[in-house]
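Let's inspect a concrete specimen:
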Amino acid sequence: MSLRRQLRVHRADALEPHDHVAWYGDGRDDLYALARVALAAGARRSEKLMFVAREPQPALLGDIGDVDRLLERGQLEVVDVDEVQGSSHAFNAAQQLATVEAVLREALAAGYTGIRVVADNTPLVSGGDEDFRRWLAWEQVTDRFQACSNVTGICYFDRGALDEERQSDIAALHPVCAESSIEPPFSLFADGDAVSVTGALDAWSADQFRRVLDTAPGEHALVLDLSHAEYVDHRALLALNAIASAERPIRIRRAPSIVQRMPLLLSISTPYLSFE
C-alpha cells in the first residue's frame, strides 16, 4: 500500500503539492530565507503564492523574481498574520478552512495550478495550553484538506519561542519536516480516508501520543492505520480506548495481530474501539 509522501528535507525547493511542512528556524532571517526559496519554486510551478507573517516586508522577498509584478498581477499576496488567522484566542478552524478553500477555488479558476503558502505561525502557538490545543486540532484539519488538494502548506516556527515539547507535538502532525527540525518519535497524518501512523508508539512516546490524540477533531469516527508503525505497545491501545466515545468511535486499520489481541490479553472492554 502506498503512503503519502513523508520525508525530512534540507531545501525548500524540494517541496511539492500536498506537502504539509513544519519548518523551524531562528528568527526573521530564516523565515525570509525559507520564503524566498519556497515561493520561487511555487512561481515556477505557476502556483498562487501567499506569504503570511507579522508585519511582512515584501522587499525581503526579492529573490523570487519581480516582486512588484507578482504583487500587481495578484499571483503573490503578502499579508499580516492577524489579517488571515487572527490572534491565538480568536482563531477559528472552521472559518480558516473556509478561507483557504475559497482561496484555492479562486486560484484554480484564475488558471493557477494550486496555492503555496509560507506562514509564520509562531504567534499562534506561543499562547496558553488551550490555545495550543486548538492549534494542534487545526493542524489536523488542514492536513486532511492539503492531502487531497493542490496545496503546499509551509508552517514556519521560531524555535526560540517554543519549548521542545511543543516543537515535537507540532512536528508529529506534519508529514514533511525540515531536516533541522526536532524529530518526533511518531507522526500522525491524513492518508486517504484514514490517519496513518509512522514511528514508534511505546513507553517513551505514550504521553505525547495521548496528548496529540486528545486534540484530534471529533466530528467523525477516527480511522487509524497502523500498518506503517514501527512498533505499537499496549499503552497506545489504552490511549486510543480512553478517548474513543459514542460520539467519536475509533476504528483501527491493519493493526498487527498482537495489537488486535491486546483487549483480550489486558481484559479490557473496548465498546467504541474496533479493528478492521
